[in-house]
Amino acid sequence: MSKQVDAPLERWLATLALVIISLISLANVVVRYFTDASFAFTEELSVFLLVILTFAGASVALRRNRHIRIGFLERLCPRLRTPLIIGQWLVATLVLGLVLWFGGQFALEEYQWQSESPGLGLPNWWYVVWLPLLAVLMFVRLCQMTLERLRGSDHDEP
């Protein structure tokens, strides 16, 4: 029996984000039901946590080889398997590189402009800096998965 590959940091981040989203949403519904008012910050915080959840979940999916890919073409022509895996890595690296570059630029601009979030008045860069950081984590998981696939590990097929 093979050991299941994992991304513990991203799994922890995704779980924490989902739990907090659930708790603040539940609290907001209960408060709204009893008082006809709602917490103003919940939407802002929920959107931020949803971004964390999405990127962390995508990173876990990368590590476990659960993303959509060109598996049909790999099976159709086994000789093209290695070039296809490398091509997939190149395209994914390009996309993550763009997220890293533009997310990093955006976070730096938010820091320099000292802009604040509308709901809580927190610095916007606190929210945005997670884009490039999680893109780097996704790249690490992408490389791990790609190397395992090139080696022909038993985690090759989801």
From TrEMBL:
Keyword Transmembrane helix: yes
Compartments (UniProt record): Cell inner membrane
Keywords: Cell inner membrane, Cell membrane, Membrane, Transmembrane, Transmembrane helix, Transport
Transmembrane intervals: 12-33, 45-62, 83-104, 124-143
Keyword Membrane listed: yes
One of the protein's GO biological processes: C4-dicarboxylate transport
Cellular-component GO terms for this entry: plasma membrane
MF terms in GO: transmembrane transporter activity
Pfam families per UniProt: DctQ
Membrane-protein topology: Multi-pass membrane protein
Residue span(s) of domain Tripartite ATP-independent periplasmic transporters DctQ component: 22-151
Family membership noted in the UniProt record: Belongs to the TRAP transporter small permease family.
Functional description taken from the UniProt entry: Part of the tripartite ATP-independent periplasmic (TRAP) transport system.
Subunit note: The complex comprises the extracytoplasmic solute receptor protein and the two transmembrane proteins.
Protein name in UniProt: TRAP transporter small permease protein
UniProt organism field: Phytopseudomonas punonensis
